[in-house]
Structure formats: C-alpha cells, structure tokens
Amino acid sequence: MANAPATVIVIDDDEGVRESLRGLLRSVGLQVRDYGSVTEFLAAPRPPSPRCLVLDVRLPGRSGLDLQAELAQAGTSLPIIFITGHGDIPMSVRAMKAGAVEFLTKPFRDQDLLDAIHVALAQDRAQHEEGAADVALRRRFEDLTPRERQVFALVATGLLNKQIAGAIGVTEITVKVHRSHVMKKMGARSVVDLVRMADRLKLSPPGPSG
What we know:
The radius of gyration is 24 Å and the shape is elongated. It is α/β, with parallel strands linked by helices. The chain has helices at 15-27, 38-43, 64-73, 89-97, 110-142, 146-155, 161-168, 172-186, 191-201, and strands at residues 7-11, 31-35, 51-56, 80-84, 102-105. Helix 4 (89-97) links the parallel strand 4 (80-84) and strand 5. It folds into two domains: 7-135, 3-Layer(aba) Sandwich (Rossmann fold), CATH 3.40.50; 143-201, Arc Repressor Mutant, subunit A (Orthogonal Bundle), CATH 1.10.10.10.
C-alpha cells in the first residue's frame, strides 16, 4: 500500500508522554495510534504500511524488549524506536542488536525522534515493497509448467542446453523452447537475471526425470 499515509504506533504507559508525542507527530503530518501497554497494542488491528513503532522499554506487564522479541519470533517486520527514562548500555545494546532503529533516552530532542522515525518508515516501505516483489515473482514462477520449472532451476545452475537435455532426458531443441518460455514468463533479460530470481525463490536443482 504505497499510497497509505504513514502511521506511527506509540506504546508508553505515561499518558502525558503519549499526548506530547501525538501532538509532535501530527504536527509533521504523521498519523498516530497510541497505547498504554503491549496488551492493548496486540489486541488492536495493525495499520497498513508504512508504519513504525515508538516503544517505551519499561511497561506494565510485558516490557518493550519482550515485545521486540515476540514480534521477531512471529516474523513480524515492524521497525522499532525505543524510548526510555531509565536506559542503560546493556539494555540499549540488546535492543540494537535485535534490530532496533534507535534507542533514545528521555528527555530527547524532538528532531532526534523525528529523524529516527523517518529512517524507520523508509525501512518499512522498503521491506513492504520487497515483500510485494517477492510475491509477484512467486506468482510468475507458479505460472510455469512443471518442465519449465525444471529447466529454470537447471539453467540457473549454469548448465548448457545440451547438458540440461541430457539431465532431464529431452532433446536440446526442446530445452531451447522451454528456456525461451521461462525467460519470457519470468520477465528475465539474461541468465544472470534468472540466477538472481532462482536465488530469491530459493530454488534447488531438480533430480533427473523421464
């Protein structure tokens, strides 16, 4: 959803902090959803991309670091900016190693937070676009016939047409026809393109077949 407005999700148990951040973020044209706890956030529907999370480290119940770990375990890609009034170096190192965009100690400059948010939103956009591209690539691959998929996987390993023909038990001319169809259906301009696509699709060379 490239045209969706950017949304910043704020989780902080201090209503005053949430109110202040709502005002700051809306003043620069960002949408805001704020919650007082991890439980509230997890019960709410997710806004569409682009989005990022401004997360207090210390929260009632599950902490911000707990949520970061839960999201990672669930495979949820959501860029996180940590804010805290009680930060320490081991805590910040743990958060950054786990992929946080920034770790800010209160009081922080508004501009530092806004800069981090712009980085996080750009990261989320890029991840969203990459995911959409992977889905489109997978659909093109699924449109190939079983034999075309087989030829695709073997071409991507660097085998010549003659070698592919011997490997799958068909004529070299048949391989050339299948190869041409694969290039056209996958939108590949060269064998290098096919190799890159095979890598993204995580293809492995097929075994011999009759």
